[in-house]
């Protein structure tokens, strides 16, 4: 097994009233579990967040740089950036580091004008969808989500679906943990939670 594996799982689901993002809190390096309490979800603005899988240091550095650039851009524009604009800015930031990339995959989701969800790989390719799963437990989680997803779900139903998908992952993927950070994003703002899957 590579020491640079994208450990952990991140899940995003967009529904009519908002977006739910989640990432497990386990941090694995090679064959060792280093921590079960690493933060891999972050608030970018009052209604946009990210969730990630990968190397914790790279996730945190990317968040720090992205937060700075988003705040600077919003000050210059005099208004909030949209979700797609933040995803494109992140893409430029990641592509600029393509020779020594951030070893992470990220989800960017939020509700500025409408619910939006995007995934980015380590060199910044942007893909939008209604639900996205990244990381080592992706194959397991996507089966649960595809079987039960509906664009007309409520945010509470989407939250339950995300938790159910990560429970399935926690049972079968040793690189994903049993504690999860959740971010529920609606038109009124962001609610953050930490949930135990046990």
Describe what you observe in this structure.
By secondary structure, the protein is an alpha+beta fold. It has one domain: 4-Layer Sandwich (Glutamine Phosphoribosylpyrophosphate, subunit 1, domain 1), CATH 3.60.20. Helices cover 32% and strands 36% of the residues. It has a five-stranded antiparallel beta sheet, covered by helices on one side. Strands 5-6-7-8-9 form a five-stranded antiparallel beta sheet, with helices on one face. A two-stranded antiparallel sheet has the order 3-4. A hairpin with a 3-residue loop joins β7 (104-111) and β8. It starts with 8 loop residues before the first strand and ends with a strand. The model has no long low-confidence stretch (mean pLDDT 91).
Strand order of the largest sheet: 10-1-2-11-12
Quote the beta fraction.
35-45%
Structure class? alpha+beta
Averaging pLDDT over every residue, what do you get? Answer: 91
Distance between the termini: 27 Å
Helix content: 25-40%
**Strands, total number:** 12
* Oligomer class: single chain
User: Overall 3D geometry?
Assistant: globular
> Number of helical runs?
4
Q: What is the CATH homologous superfamily assignment?
A: Aminohydrolase, N-terminal nucleophile (Ntn) domain
Rg of Cα set: 15 Å
* Tally of structural domains: 1
By CATH, the topology is Glutamine Phosphoribosylpyrophosphate, subunit 1, domain 1
Largest sheet: 5 strands, antiparallel
CATH class label = Alpha Beta
Low-pLDDT runs:
none
- For the record, the CATH architecture stands as 4-Layer Sandwich
């Amino acid at each position: 097994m590579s020491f640079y594996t994208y450990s952990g799982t991140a899940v995003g689901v967009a529904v009519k009233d908002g977006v739910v993002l989640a990432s497990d809190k386990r941090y694995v390096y090679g064959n060792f579990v280093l921590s079960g309490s690493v933060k891999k979800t972050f608030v970018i603005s009052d209604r946009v967040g990210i969730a990630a899988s990968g190397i914790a240091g790279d996730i945190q550095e990317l968040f720090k740089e992205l937060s700075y650039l988003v705040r600077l851009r919003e000050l210059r524009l005099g208004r909030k950036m949209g979700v797609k604009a933040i995803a494109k800015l992140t893409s430029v930031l990641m592509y600029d580091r393509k020779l020594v990339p951030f070893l992470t995959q990220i989800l960017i989701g939020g509700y500025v004008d409408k619910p939006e969800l995007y995934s980015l790989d380590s060199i910044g390719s942007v893909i939008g969808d209604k639900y996205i799963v990244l990381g080592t437990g992706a194959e397991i989680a996507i089966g649960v989500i595809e079987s039960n997803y509906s664009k007309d779900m409520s945010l509470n139903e989407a939250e339950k679906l995300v938790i159910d998908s990560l429970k399935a992952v926690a049972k079968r993927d040793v690189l994903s943990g049993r504690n999860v950070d959740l971010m529920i994003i609606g038109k009124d703002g962001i609610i953050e939670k930490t949930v135990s899957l046990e």
